[in-house]
Amino acid sequence: MLLLLVIVLLGASALLAASETALFALARMQHTRASLGEAAAKAVDSLLRHSLESLMVIIGFNETVNVFAECLATAFLLSWLGPPGGWISVPVMFVLVLLVSDITPKTFALGFPAAVARLTARPLAAVALTLHPLARFFVPEEPPPSAPLSESEFKALVVASEQFGQVASPRLPTDTTLAFPSTAAIPTTSWACFEPRIWSPAAWSRHRRVWSG
Question: Low-confidence residues of the chain, pLDDT below 70?
Answer without folding.
Answer: 135-213
